[in-house]
Structures
1.
Amino acid sequence: ETGVTQTPRHLVMGMTNKKSLKCEQHLGHNAMYWYKQSAKKPLELMFVYNFKEQTENNSVPSRFSPECPNSSHLFLHLHTLQPEDSALYLCASSQERRLEAFFGQGTRLTVV
Amino acid sequence: AQTVTQSQPEMSVQEAETVTLSCTYDTSESDYYLFWYKQPPSRQMILVIRQEAYKQQNATENRFSVNFQKAAKSFSLKISDSQLGDAAMYFCASTIQGGSEKLVFGKGTKLTVNP
């Protein structure tokens, strides 16, 4: 257990659904990240939040909408996804951007 | 663009033996950090070891050590006395700068430990 909790662990959704992924950390970290992990591909950074402010949007389609209400919580709102969006979505946090990131267990998303 | 390359999609090792996982990276930065992460079947990425590029001394963490060759941009991970619990995907990662530092990951190496 790294101190970063993601819910739900598994999610199946239709292309017209709206759902949200949640990430929570109580490590006192100030930076939080969303990564996408697809089979046979490197981890792809999606979003970075530092002190609740979004500092990175790595050309992510608008059907993914992040929200960071405070430095302990991070959400990823999903709507009208495509089957190719099926992947493992990992949340991470770090104290300083040069230090190691602590990861959650991920949400396995399947879009049908 | 910064890249991290792991040329071994899969590796296997006998229990108690030593195995080395390769990683090369490409960066124009002079100051950066390198990491090895382990992802077991439980899916949670766990930090194995960390190396600051400005340090010449190779990092070690119990049975895990790195061979950091800065000029060659190489960062290999050596696992000594391999244990069954070491079986996992191993990812090499590097930080990059540019306003918002982030980790760039390689594609990973799947390590199998044979009893």
2.
Amino acid sequence: DAEITQSPRHKITETGRQVTLACHQTWNHNNMFWYRQDLGHGLRLIHYSYGVHDTNKGEVSDGYSVSRSNTEDLPLTLESAASSQTSVYFCASSESLTGSDEKLFFGSGTQLSVL
Amino acid sequence: SQQGEEDPQALSIQEGENATMNCSYKTSINNLQWYRQNSGRGLVHLILIRSNEREKHSGRLRVTLDTSKKSSSLLITASRAADTASYFCATDKRNKLTFGKGITLSVRP
């Protein structure tokens, strides 16, 4: 069955370190998204991509970057991790930009702790 | 900034009762979607209602949309303990979803 996989499930790192969270989907979806989820804030969009080599900033993109070299993967990089980036990170995908009414398929999330 | 705002923040009901959750938003939308999140898991899509629709059903779910009031409601009928989860509304504008903060639903057996 097609799916969207995030790794690792849990990550502990130190402030200042570079961290990369992986997201891999097997639906061949064009659109991929990264959200962070924090108590009191719900889900906030970090970055998104509508296809290979396309990336766009979301609502809370500072300190994060993404690259899209193929359809299946959208890794999220924290250039220099900060304690404020301690959060649960979710990757999601949807099929097409041209179609309307796109629903998102979510991964199981990565719990990141920055100490 | 949050587009959708759910109400109430938390809801506790007895199994078998109906659960009603509300969502308000601020700007025009293409559609509104509801998602469920079980503890420690990702979000799962429940139902989508387009801006030109007023009501939609899916199994025990009924969603309404009032674009003049910029509000939506999700009704879960005959609730079960397995419905215990967080529920999020999300508004779609230009194929980008913006989520609310969520409602925590507890269904007591």
